[in-house]
Every structure is written in structure tokens, then in C-alpha cells.
Amino acid sequence: MPAEIGLVMAVAAVSVGAILVRWSHAPSSVAAFYRVLFTTLPLIPVAVWRYREEFRRIGRRDLVFATLSGIALALHFAAWFESLEWTSVAASVTLVQAQPVFVALGAWLLLSERVTRRIAVGITVAVGGMAVMSLGDLLGGVLVGPNPLYGNSLALFGAVMAAGYVLAGRSLRQRLALIPYVVVVYGVCTVSLLAIVIIEGHPLTGYPTREWLVFAGLAIGPGLFGHTVINWALAHLESSVVSVSLLGEPVGATILALVLLSEAPTTFTVVGGGIVLIGIYLTTSGTT
């Protein structure tokens, strides 16, 4: 399959994620747990069969970074899934997609990486767009969701945690093949989400068939056919092409929310979201 077609399919698959979360009536942390668990389980036999030697070469330092990366990913999923309970799909998906902005900031603050003028402009533009999205509707009195400001804050926290996942796993990804990397990090993520579910006191069983189908859909669509294919595409396409293509997720999710959930974004969300996407584009194109 050509990488370009695979990338288009992957962006379409991840765009469905927010809709499936909205369709679920289970607690958000439970949906996130099964999303990651069901994504990881099919990969374990492949990893053990084909990459046994790579697992043996994983050192203590790699395990530390894998643990940090997996915990950050768990917090990303938990926060983002919960954000969809409080704000619009358009706002939540756009804000959580802003993780490249926080990756650039984190690389500058923690790794002393150089911030170019283009990156600085991109970060500034994205932050301005976030302010328009989060405060515009509040001041204008037109709200989509029970508490958009809280939901937007959760989505932003999810973006920060996604950036932490990328930064913590950057060196590990360079030394491990895709499948072993995903299994190790997703394994830590699964355990972390299980801990969150237990702490929150939610049951792990007793959900109707409809919920299990949603959990499976989250794993197969956004999980296996989404992010896994995106990681595969990075080995065949320029990273800048992949980064820009991912900006299609908020657009796709917004259209799907309008068609399937009858959820029309407000003017401030559309304008602010457009500004955020421009900022993300400037940031990603400045780092690739």
C-alpha cells in the first residue's frame, strides 16, 4: 500500500476517535483503558515472536524513559477523553492536537534545543488561537458543552501530556523498532490507566455489548489503523508531510460531529481553531 494512501486512511481513522468517545456511556477513564488495552493485546504475540532479542536489549535507562512516556500517554488519554464530556468535539480535538507546540516548548526548556523565529511565531499564534477558543465563547455567551472552559483546559492538559510522551520516548524510539516500542510504552500506559480506573472506583465489567463495541472500535480505528499506521508512514514519508497531514484530524472530527452528533461549532471555536491550526503548522514546519 502506498504510504500516502495509508496516511490518508490513518488521519480518517483518528478523526473518528472523538465521535466514538462521545458515543460511549462508560466512564471516560474506562473507555481510555480499554482503548489502549485492546490496541496493545494484538501486538504482543508479534512483538514476542519477531522482536524477542530487542526486548532483551532494553536497559534500565530505557525502562525509565518508557515508564515516563507511558504514564504521560495515560494522562493524555484520561484528560482528553474526559474533556469530551465538557466541551465541543471541535474545541477538544483542536486543542489536544496542539501537542507539537508543547513539544517545541519542552525541547527548548528541558533539552536546550534551539527555537527558531518560525517556531516562536507558531507558538505565539497557537496560544492566541487557544485564547480565542477558550475565552471567546465564554464572553460571547454561546456555549457548546456543560463547561467548555473546563473541558478546554483538560484538552490542553492532554496536549501537554502528549508532548511529554513524545519527549520522553524520543530517544527510546530511536533505539527500538516500532512494535517493541509500542508494546513497552502502551503496556505502561495500560497499567497506569488501570490504576486511574481503580482509584476513581469504576467497575471494569458489566457494560452492555454496545460499550464493548465502542471500546473495540477505539482500538481498531484510532489505535491500530490510526496512530500505528501514522508511525509506519513516518518511515516512508517526510516528517513534515505527516505533521501537516495530522492537522486534518480536527477538521475531520468537526465535520463528523456536525453530521453524526448534530454539534455545530461556534464562531469563536471555528476562528480560534483555524488560528491554532496555523500556529501548529508554523511550529511543525519549523521543527522538521
Automatic annotation (TrEMBL):
<feature type="transmembrane region" description="Helical">
    <location>
        <begin position="212"/>
        <end position="234"/>
    </location>
</feature>
<feature type="domain" description="EamA">
    <location>
        <begin position="150"/>
        <end position="284"/>
    </location>
</feature>
<feature type="transmembrane region" description="Helical">
    <location>
        <begin position="179"/>
        <end position="200"/>
    </location>
</feature>
<feature type="domain" description="EamA">
    <location>
        <begin position="5"/>
        <end position="134"/>
    </location>
</feature>
<dbReference type="Pfam" id="PF00892">
    <property type="entry name" value="EamA"/>
</dbReference>
<dbReference type="InterPro" id="IPR000620">
    <property type="entry name" value="EamA_dom"/>
</dbReference>
<feature type="transmembrane region" description="Helical">
    <location>
        <begin position="32"/>
        <end position="51"/>
    </location>
</feature>
<keyword id="KW-0812">Transmembrane</keyword>
<feature type="transmembrane region" description="Helical">
    <location>
        <begin position="123"/>
        <end position="143"/>
    </location>
</feature>
<dbReference type="InterPro" id="IPR037185">
    <property type="entry name" value="EmrE-like"/>
</dbReference>
<feature type="transmembrane region" description="Helical">
    <location>
        <begin position="7"/>
        <end position="26"/>
    </location>
</feature>
<feature type="transmembrane region" description="Helical">
    <location>
        <begin position="63"/>
        <end position="81"/>
    </location>
</feature>
<feature type="transmembrane region" description="Helical">
    <location>
        <begin position="149"/>
        <end position="167"/>
    </location>
</feature>
<protein>
    <submittedName>
        <fullName>DMT family transporter</fullName>
    </submittedName>
</protein>
<keyword id="KW-1133">Transmembrane helix</keyword>
<feature type="transmembrane region" description="Helical">
    <location>
        <begin position="241"/>
        <end position="261"/>
    </location>
</feature>
<keyword id="KW-0472">Membrane</keyword>
<feature type="transmembrane region" description="Helical">
    <location>
        <begin position="87"/>
        <end position="111"/>
    </location>
</feature>
<feature type="transmembrane region" description="Helical">
    <location>
        <begin position="267"/>
        <end position="284"/>
    </location>
</feature>
